[in-house]
Amino acid sequence: MGLDGSTTSWRAFSMAVGIARRYEARVHACFVFHVPASAGLAAFAVPVTAFVGDDGGDLGRDVAEELSRAGVEGDFTYIEGDVAHELEALAERCLADVIVVGRSRHPALHLGGVPRRLLATGRRPVLVVP
Q1: Residue numbers of the chain with a pLDDT score lower than 70
Q2: Contact indicator for 17, 25 with CB cutoff of 8 Å
Q3: Strand 26-33 and strand 73-80: pairing?
Q4: Considering the chain, what is the average pLDDT of its residues?
Q5: Which of 3, 99, 101, 104 could be disulfide-bonded to 109 (CB atoms 3.0-4.6 Å)?
Q6: pLDDT recorded at residue 53
Q7: What secondary structure, in 3-state letters, does 6-64 show?
């Protein structure tokens, strides 16, 4: 499940935790940091560690706390790369039954780029949580 700290991604995380609790399954939460190629030309750059730390930092700790509170097993992965590709690759490695992601925060996009790409090219069901 994709988690970037946004409200919609936390709702998706809560949905994944609820499903995992009911089916005695695991949650594999993942933050994927993607730097567009055009960002390399920018005069200023903010390292991802400013947002989540070297290893996912606060986001990883929050995930661990929520999983513990819910009594659900799981883990948190911090990866750099293409978001849709990395989520699909993680799901493949973990033999996931479903990928859970939040809908875009931008109303005009409705699904957003990542959910749309996962639905179009992914090999497993995708649950998009509003």
Answers
A1: 35-57, 106-112
A2: no
A3: parallel
A4: 82
A5: 104
A6: 47
A7: CHHHHHHHHHHHHHHHHHCCEEEEEEEECCCHHHHHCCCCCCCHHHHCCCCHHHHHHHH
